[in-house]
Description:
Shape: elongated
Strand content: 15-25%
Distance between the termini: 22 Å
CATH architecture of the largest domain: 3-Layer(aba) Sandwich
Helix content: 40-55%
Largest sheet: 7 strands, parallel
Number of domains: 2
Number of strands: 13
CATH topology of the largest domain: Rossmann fold
CATH class of the largest domain: Alpha Beta
Strand order of the largest sheet: 3-2-1-4-5-6-7
Number of helices: 18
Radius of gyration: 22 Å
Amino acid sequence: MPTQKTAVPASPRIIFITTPNSDPWAGSEELWGRTALDLVAQGFPVSASVTAFSPLHPRMIELRNRGVELWLRPAWYAWHEHPWRRLRSRRGGPILHEAERLIAARPPALVVLSDGAGGLPPIELLELCVARRLAFATIVQLGRDTEWYADGLAERYRRALAAAQRCYFVSHANYRLAETQIAGDLPNGEVVWNPFNVPRDASPAWPPLGADRELRLACVGRLYPRQKGQDLLFEALASPVWRERPWRLSVYGEGPQRQTLERLAEKLGISDRVVFAGFARVEQIWAANHALVMPSRYEGLPLAMVEAMVCGRPVVATDVAGHAEIIEDGMTGFLADAPTAGSIAIALERFWERRDDAEAIGKAGARRIRELVPPDPVRIFSDKLRALVEKYPCDGAALQRRLA
């Protein structure tokens, strides 16, 4: 890990500080990770403070091999806890400590705080940037309406976020939620798109129906029911009416509750219909399945939904976060009113009644998502960060004095 201070390079340095969930790489890492590579390709020196998962994820290794300077911070917190909780409980903890070291050694023109754990980035990191008078931006990938900030913390967020050059969100719903939870306005806020992991022109063939006309559903995401709600879907599909229908559910992904979900499927009597398929390529998933079911309790805007729509598959999802921003209910998919088994069952029933139209609904979704998502979200975002660096210039000598 880099330890020595070096001279500030001629090109302005951009630092990314990530506060991810407990996965070595998740959808929340796609935007900052790909943007870092794009900036390096344009000649910007880029450093990133990331958790030292063991082994290091191949995508992190790719970042390092392609010129992003990785500063690996110890994974000192327990895996079952969100990093921001442990960070606050330990008076800053490893994330703040390592961020201070990185900023001192590599004075940045811009700091980008990317949070994938849910909620706003840790307040200590925002206040560090404010105290050092550094230009900074935030990226919020998730929002949870069940967790609120105490009054004093909300006030700190109002002050610190007002000092940010930009506050980026991946859905309008998460933007509004953040303003509600701090009871303040964020005029410096903006919604941006995440990149997705399938070619824009992807068009896997519609899976043929067998003699029994089995409907093949897919649930794609981390095996973490607290967020992804797989338990709600299992409960809906365990109802007597669904037991009489031909269907199969493939659950894609891995996570800390795989065994629990396997046992739950067995307990509910649907283990013969539920396949835990692990990881698979996006086009492989949609070559084999007819529809995505996304029963999330909270989200940002899942890549899995965008990818399913790009591939021409209808989506049944809970109406949380940004889901309704891309799904037109009854036209490109079906929305459940709430993240409950009952609401999901109603949405699934509506889909079942129109299952003969599923391919046409998927094609409508494919057209819709291509209208919404720009061709190159990464370049658009890197251009935004470049514009911030140009708007708030600071030479290396001034940065060194500021950090002294």
